[in-house]
Amino acid sequence: xxxxxxxxLLLLSLCAAGQPLSLDDCYQLARQHYPTIKKQELLRQSTxxxxxxxxxxWLPQLSVSGQATYQTDVTRIPVALxxxxxxxKDQYRLxxxxxxxxxxxxxxxxxxxxxxxxxxxxxxxxxxSFHAVKERVAQLFFSILxxxxxxxxxxxxxxxxxxxxxxxxxxxxxxxxxxxxxxxLQAELMKAKMGxxxxxSDQKAxxxxxxxxxxxxxxxxLLLPAPQQAAPGLHRPELQLFELQKQxxxxxxxxxxxxxxxxxxxxxxxxxxxxxLNVLKNSFDPFAVGGIRFSFPLGSLYTYQNNxxxxxxxxxxxxxxxxxxxxxxxxxxxxxxxxxxxxxxLLQQDDAIIALRTQVTRSALAQLDNGVVTTHEYITQxxxxxxxxxxxxxxxxxxxxxxxxYQTISGH
Length: 412
What we know:
By secondary structure, this protein is α+β, with helices and mostly antiparallel strands. The protein has one domain: Outer membrane efflux proteins (OEP), CATH 1.20.1600.10. 66% of the residues lie in helices and 11% in strands. It has helices at 2-17, 23-33, 39-55, 107-173, 179-214, 237-258, 304-369, 375-410, and strands at 61-70, 90-103, 263-274, 285-295. It has a 4-stranded antiparallel beta sheet, with no helix packed on it.
């Protein structure tokens, strides 16, 4: 409930203030909206009830039983004795028994430990599943950032074409520009507007997908994440899941030994029947019996060694799965580290390329105004500058995306 209220306040504050959504905001909203996360509190409540039930095995246990029988013969004394009646063949008994466990060999203790590790395992599995949601949220988040950057650059490009078209129309009226130049600029302007429409359509689709994941509208700007440094070590939720699974195996091994330990309990029986404890008295009488009961089940000896080997194999499988996961994760980290280095170098080259392309475009515009170059030649240079700026925007977002991916893959 506290997490729900905090996320609700976050959403209301962002909407009221018109603040852009950050990646962390999206993570928080996605966690609150993720249906499986809502199971966590239900699992905790269920485990509390189960542990409470396990603890109640130490409470006195009451049982009531009764029987009515008819038998073909009864115990007889071969000689007739005065005062000793013949027993009835129909016999009746109603009794209650109270049993108090004195020593259960550690069964309830291990049962509680298994319940706790089972709860921890299920909760951690939810964290593992949410980690995949975080990766999807980050992917959509950076897709929107890239489309937003492309949209802004496309708007600048469209404005430049529109400005050149206005100049060409005025020059055509003065007879200094051929009508074909105006037509070519008009066609290029229509193409630029089509590019704007296509980008906006993609923006809407990706924003709707992100909105479904976080359970909130994504209509405003997104906050560009700050550059991030790669943190050492792995902190993935899967590693904690492996450790919890190993603990669960260890507790199961302890539970095997509890099946080989004796059980001791105190008991009291009280009842009413015919005959009672005195089998030679043929009348209904109350009776009571009390004492200590000792039991030592030996059936688990038959399966103890095989069950122990099964648990040892389970531990080996978990270790192999852990090593495989670490290897795959390190491979993914190496890939992202290479991407970070690549985009860092490309951005340095992008600045130099854009500076040169801008200089060429300005020169082409001046030559177009003086009739030295054709409109087609000018558009070619403008497109080259536009493409260089789009590539830089792409590399900027890809660099941040690679940095965030590295942090996400490593579990930070």
